[in-house]
Write a structure and sequence with these properties.
Helix 3 crosses helix 5. 30% of the residues lie in helices and 19% in strands. It has a seven-stranded mixed beta sheet with strand order 5-4-1-6-8-7-9, with helices on both faces. The longest helix is centred in the last third of the chain and has 13 residues. The chain is built from seven helices and nine strands; from the N terminus they run E-E-E-H-E-H-E-H-E-H-E-E-H-H-E-H.
């Protein structure tokens, strides 16, 4: 099974308001993310910071199948990843943020396939810099590694990856699919928002594995 975990528990300090619920073109930001992911994922889980946020997301984003919550408030993405993985049984999950509305479904499909013979797939730049979001990870292996990272109170996503078999995908390969690498763009300020946001949504045809 191919799943998706959208992390929405951040404080949005630089943005000034809840990024997940910020409206762009009559849709909250997390809906733009979920619409693109729904083209390639069988199940979508959002990790919210509290019940109020979670209820709003479920009411306004039909593509999301389940809401779960950060087990440790203000801990960071590792706690959110663990919460998301705990809702899933098996298969591969893509992990991304609620503030990445330009995510390219073809890139996600590529990362899913890149995980087939590994525990995870992570984009890597020529200079060694890693793009932690979006990344794909096998549910069972990821859950075990994330649990150990939490036990050690290590808040780095890198700590999870160091415990599993990772396929480091050259960003040059991603660029062949997404020339401007908008998949990696997260929204930190209102000025970062471009229009139109979701050109991916123009196609309603689900992208099948292998395409």
């Amino acid at each position: 099974m191919r799943s998706a975990i959208i992390l929405a528990g951040g404080n949005s300090t630089r943005f000034g308001s809840d990024k997940a619920l910020y409206e762009i073109q009559d849709k909250i930001m997390i809906k733009h993310v979920a619409e693109n992911l729904s083209q390639v994922a069988d199940r979508i889980v959002a990790v919210a910071k509290d019940e109020a946020q979670g209820e709003t997301i479920m009411a306004r984003v039909s593509e999301i199948d389940e809401i779960t919550y950060d087990p440790i408030k203000n801990y960071g993405p590792v706690a959110g990843i663990f919460a998301g993985l705990m809702t899933l049984r098996e298969g591969t999950a893509v992990i991304t943020g609620c503030d990445m509305p330009y995510i390219n479904r073809k890139v996600i499909n590529y990362l899913y396939k890149a995980t087939d013979n590994h525990d995870a797939a992570v984009p890597k730049h020529k200079n060694g810099h890693l793009e932690f979001l979006p990344t794909t990870i096998k549910v069972k292996q990821g859950r075990k590694a994330t649990k150990l990272a939490l036990r050690e109170a290590d808040k780095r996503i890198l700590n999870i990856l160091q415990r599993i078999d990772v396929n480091y995908v050259p960003v040059s390969k991603i660029k062949e699919i997404d020339p401007e690498l908008k998949t990696f763009k997260d929204i930190n300020q209102i000025e970062d928002i471009e229009k139109p946001v979701c050109s991916e949504n123009k196609s309603k045809n689900r992208l099948q594995p292998g395409r």
